[in-house]
Amino acid sequence: MNKNKITLSLAAALTLGISTSTMAAGFQLAEYSATGLGRAFAGEAAMADNASAQFRNPAMMTYLEGTQISVGAIYVDPNIDVEGDISLAGHKISSTKASDIAHSAVIPNFYISHRINDQWAVGLAMATNYGMETELGGDFMGTLFGNQANIMSVEINPNVAYKINDQFSVGAGVRYVMGDGHFGASVPTNLPPMLEPSFGPLKGQNLKYMEGDDSSWGWQLGAAWQINEKHRIGVNYRSAVDLKLKGEASGLLYGGTFAGSMDLTLPATAEIASYHQLTDKLAMHASFNWTDWSSFDKLEANIPSLSPNPDLIKEENWEDNYRFAVGATYQYTNKLALRTGVAYDTSAVNDEHRTQTIPETDRLWLSLGAGYQWSDALSFDAGFTYIFAKDASMSETEHVGDIPVNFTGETTGNVWLVGIQANYKF
Predict the structure, then answer these.
(1) What is the DSSP string of 321-369?
(2) For 267-320, where are the E strands, in sequence order?
(3) What are the pLDDT digits (tens) for 147-163?
């Protein structure tokens, strides 16, 4: 994919398409390490297990000795269904269902940290905060609202940390975010008999199709307060990332291929976390996360050759999202650590504004994990999470000419996540 085909995809695939990223709010991904996965990512901004800690708080690198490398991957298996009724001019014409519309994926990560001296540390993180892939078969009658969407992103994040004294550390980093994807909306291949005469020849054709890539910069700041040897608090702030998406859009509704642009802001996030060593073997940790999704109120596209005025793509009216997590680590033996955690993600959209476009809903995380110290230098981590996604109702209307077409239905589903990670220090 080249820059000549940069398009509206990062925005459109997540707002015009069917988004089923139930791993975190909106189209976020929380899965940055198998270590954190095993405790439902509780206490991340205050944890310093290995080099992956810098992705959630660069200040935590001051707690890591020597040079450390962490590499791993998390397998995500969503099971998402959408079903409901299609109405034409207020009259129900058919029921329709699409099963397993979200594709499974492997999310890799890589981290390296280096302690320069007693005060300074540097590191590099390569991971992701955004990603999804969905596809609805042509038999689903709601494909005019979106039949395929794909987003892949990679973040390259160099960081630096400074230990002020035995109690306080600070850290900062720059974030280079790259993403690509595609989106499509099409005429269903399974049309009700009453629509066959008018739309039969168009079955399966794209109404809109977009593909492209873009990149932009952001930053993060972090700090840690070691209250005493057993208690620690960490905070982290990640800036918004402004994307200027330029490229092409095509399909029946465009009547050709046209250049266009769209502004999309990936929202700012913040976390406050705590770590508490209660006994020699047992530690507890907790997190509170905030995401500025209220900045995501609408999307407008600029396609100068079609109109001098911005084209309102979608009213979103999202609201800020919050995540609460609590976890525990139990040092079962000198080599084996056991982890567990529970988390609750609130939806970024309320019932009034939820649509088939993004079936956002509350999520409950249940997690288990373990870490094994193979040798003084080498360790392994594994984590497992099951996410319960709350059933969510939705309704959306498009117009075919002057006739309103409405989908009213529900999304249901769950997500399995399994991660592994290797850590080496020297």
Answers:
(1) EEEEEEEEEEE-SSSEEEEEEEEEEPPSS-TTT--SSS----EEEEEEE
(2) 269-277, 282-291, 298-302, 311-315
(3) 777 777 789 999 999 99
| 399 contacts: CB under 8 Å, gap ≥ 6 | 405
Angle formed at CA 243 by CA 184 and CA 146, multiple of 5 degrees: 15
pLDDT digits (tens, 9 = 90+) for 44-74: 999 999 999 999 999 999 999 999 999 999 9
Query: Which CATH number does the domain 3-425 belong to among 2.40.160.60, 1.10.3720.10, 3.30.260.10, 2.60.40.420?
Result: 2.40.160.60
Residue with tokens 């502004």: 263
Choose among 138, 169, 178, 173: nearest CA to 157.
Answer: 173
84-127 confidence digits (pLDDT tens) = 888 887 788 888 888 877 778 888 999 999 999 999 999 999 99
CB 271 within 8 A of CB 216: no
Residue 131 has pLDDT above 80, yes or no: no
Q: Tell me 253's DSSP state.
A: T
Residues near 302 by Cβ (< 8 Å), separated by ≥ 6?
260, 261, 262, 310, 311
Q: Give the C-alpha distances (Å, rounded to integers) separating 409 from 96, 107, 191, 352.
A: 9, 30, 18, 14
The CA distances from residue 243 to 10, 86, 218, 267, in Å, are 9, 35, 10, 11
Q: What is the model's pTM?
A: 0.87
Each residue of 1-35: b (16+ CB within 10 Å) or e? Answer: eeeebbbbbbbbbbbbbbbbbbbbbbbbbbbbbbb
- What is the C-alpha to C-alpha distance for residues 337 and 335, in angstroms, rounded to an integer? 7
Q: Which residues pair with 314 in a beta bridge?
A: 299
Q: How far apart are CA 315 and CA 45, in angstroms?
A: 34
CA 243 to chain centre: 16
CA quadruple 252, 254, 255, 257: dihedral sign: negative
Domain ranges for the chain: 3-425
What Rg, from alpha-carbon coordinates, does the chain have?
A: 23
Q: Of 111, 102, 107, which Cα lies nearest the Cα of 75?
A: 107
